[in-house]
Design a protein that fits this description.
The protein is an all-beta fold. The chain has one helix and twelve strands, in the order E-E-E-E-E-E-E-E-E-E-E-E-H.
């Protein structure tokens, strides 16, 4: 039984939302909860997603919020990155979005950021693009990003993902 891997995002008025991983049930859930600037809960927990065995458990939950209280959560499951958008009351806006490929050999959670008006968000993640079984000297770690844009989103996302190679940029 474990709760962990928390993430938090704050609005300009001080209200905030937290997200975390909860393994207290038969599966693993990612949850979020909104709070006022005074630290008072603004409603109960919101279920982001749940996975039951034998599926892999979701890795982390990152969260971003805009100034009206809408929020976006992102996470990694197996070799994919996902996100889901919620309105200020914690109700889903559309379904789970399949953002892009990750890689089990490079198990980092996805991170997310959103502009204050909620018009744009970016989900970023890292993965190792080296061939299976490649020695450490041939590892090719890369960072990927996907820009999401739509005033209401409704599960839609932009089609393009941009790639930045850490290997070329920093080594």
């Amino acid at each position: 039984d474990e709760r962990g891997h928390p993430s938090a995002a704050m609005q300009s008025d001080g209200d905030f939302v937290i997200a975390w991983r909860d393994e207290r049930g038969p599966g693993t859930s990612l949850l979020a909860r909104q709070f006022t600037a005074a630290g008072t809960p603004a409603g109960g927990p919101t279920l982001i997603t749940t996975y039951n065995p034998p599926s892999y458990s979701p890795v982390g939950a990152d969260v971003a919020t805009d100034d009206d209280g809408s929020f976006l959560a992102s996470w990694r499951l197996d070799d994919r990155v996902f996100a889901r958008h919620f309105d200020p009351s914690g109700n889903p806006r559309g379904g789970v979005m399949n953002i892009g490929a990750a890689n089990r050999a490079f198990p980092l959670a996805a991170n997310v950021a959103m502009d204050p008006k909620g018009r744009y968000a970016a989900v970023v993640w890292a993965r190792n693009d080296a061939p299976a079984g490649a020695p450490p000297s041939e590892m090719d770690s890369n960072v990927y990003a996907r820009l999401l844009h739509d005033p209401k989103w409704n599960g839609r996302q932009s089609a393009a993902a941009s790639r930045v190679s850490l290997r070329k940029a920093y080594l």
